[in-house]
Amino acid sequence: MSSLRDRARELDAADPLAALRVEFIGSEDVVAYLDGNSLGRPLHASKQRLASFVSEAWGARLIRGWDERWMDAPTETGDRLARVALGAARGQTLVADSTSVLLYKLLRAGLAARPGREVLVMDSGNFPTDRFLAGAVAAERGLELRVIEPAPRAGVSVADVAGALDERVALVLLSHVDFRSAQIAELAQITALAHSAGALVLWDLSHSVGVMPIGLDAACVDLAVGCTYKYLNGGPGSPAFLYVAAALQDRLQQPIAGWMGAADPFEMGPGYAPASGIRRFASGTPPIVGMLALRDMLALIERAGIDQIRAKSVALTEFAVECGDALLQPFGVELASPRDAAVRGGHVMLEHDAFRELTPILWARGVIPDFRPPRGLRIGLSPLSTSFAELHAGISAVAELLPGRG
Questions:
Q1: Domain range holding 309?
Q2: Residue 204 is among the residues annotated as catalytic for this protein
Q3: pLDDT of 1
Q4: Which of 80, 146, 153, 230 is catalytic?
Q5: Which of the following is catalytic: 33, 153, 378, 388?
Q6: d(CA 398, CA 328)
Q7: Catalytic annotation present for 371
Q8: Among the options 104, 179, 229, 388, which is catalytic?
């Protein structure tokens, strides 16, 4: 039987997307980058685009750039993102602001769209920003915050949501992929269930966008947000995106009324009149520079195909589980993600009491996973830039440091 190292070589040789790894800028001191679901590697194309933008689009065209191309960048980039990665039609996606700001906008707008309902539902395992904002908005509006408690090492189930719904629920806030366990929520079923109770659903797609098909329109999703610096490789602090279903857009009033969301931004009139369609959810000046690297990654995702990316993601996480079972489990490491790839996202969570202490040692040795309290080591696998050999090297390095080895 071949060794895991040999298996990694075989998997890399058979990988139909392997040739795309050369599109990414590497790091000489990094042996294994296993945190691509927190910050994706930059593309060579982005290095060139950023340099030319400074000298040409910005340096040469100056303020004329707004009239010539920049004003439409939030909606044009949103439409491309929708087509390539969200499974959504044009005119429903906007790139702007941070994930936190967009969550706030859609929480407020969604709750206001269900007058007379007094409950906001979320789950205790959601990402901190989501939980903090839900609590703040509920307090601001005088609403009840109803918290789902999922099973340990799991995400929210259909049954969990069913148990939290009644005629008082206005909005449900959930993540498509759990940021710890990587369990995929039943997006379509949960959305339909909430609709049957008269509630809206706001999905956080930060850990699923760019790594798997989502199908927002097919699932009749109401509202969604997500960041662009993880699997979309937009760079540190790159802008987030929001999705508002076309049928809801003119019925929602977004709470941060800024000049860029006005019907005529340059009228400079005394009162605010919202733009029609998705542009009404803009507020301030668009982050033009922040969209540049995102556009390059969307082009690469379109070349690769989201279904092929998902297939590579599944193969990577399957191999991560295989390596973990063989190299780490004998020393007490536990798998804290689903074994079934069909319900597992693009990362694998492993747990051991030593991981907090080991993480900075691994980083110093060029192995970059992500520690998540209290005892989790998250192996984040960006399919287009991560090789199977890199993954094997990283998990082997973890094994070498575990207490009790030898």
A1: 4-43+305-401
A2: yes
A3: 36
A4: 230
A5: 378
A6: 8
A7: no
A8: 229
Q: CA-CA distance, 200 to 114, in Å (whole number)?
A: 8
Q: Do 383 and 292 belong together in one domain?
A: no
Start-end of H helices in 143-276:
158-164, 187-196
Residue 231 a catalytic site member: no
What is the pLDDT, as a whole number, of residue 2? 59
Helices 306-323 and 388-401 pack at an angle, to 10 degrees, of: 30
Question: Which pLDDT belongs to residue 405?
Answer: 64
What value, to the nearest 5°, has the Cα angle with vertex 206 and ends 203 and 212? 90
> What pLDDT is attached to residue 404?
76
56 in any annotated domain: no
- Which one of 15, 123, 204, 370 is the catalytic residue? 204
Same domain, 297 and 380: no
pLDDT, tens only, 155-186: 899 999 999 999 999 999 999 999 999 999 99
Would you state the pLDDT for residue 130?
97
Strands (E) across 216-308 are located at: 223-226, 241-244
- What's the CA gap between 400 and 132, in Å, rounded? 38
Residue 14 CB-density burial (10 A; 0-12 exposed, 13-18 middle, 19+ buried): exposed
**Are residues 247 and 361 both part of a single domain?**
no
What pTM value is reported for the model?
0.96
Neighbour count for residue 403 (Cβ, 10 Å): 11
Which segments in the chain show pLDDT lower than 70? Answer: 1-2, 405-406
Tokens of 351: 């747990």
Q: Are 253 and 112 in contact (CB under 8 A)?
A: yes
Q: At what angle do helices 73-81 and 292-304 cross, to 10 degrees?
A: 20
Q: Which helix (H) or strand (E) holds 89?
A: none
Angle, helices 388-401/355-364, rounded to nearest 10 degrees: 120
Q: What CATH number corresponds to the domain at position 96? A: 3.40.640.10
What residues contact 89, with CB distance under 8 A and at least 6 apart? 82, 217, 246
* DSSP state at residue 150: P
Q: Is residue 49 part of a domain?
A: no
Catalytic residue among 127, 141, 217, 372: 127
Helix axes 44-52, 292-304, angle to 10 degrees: 140
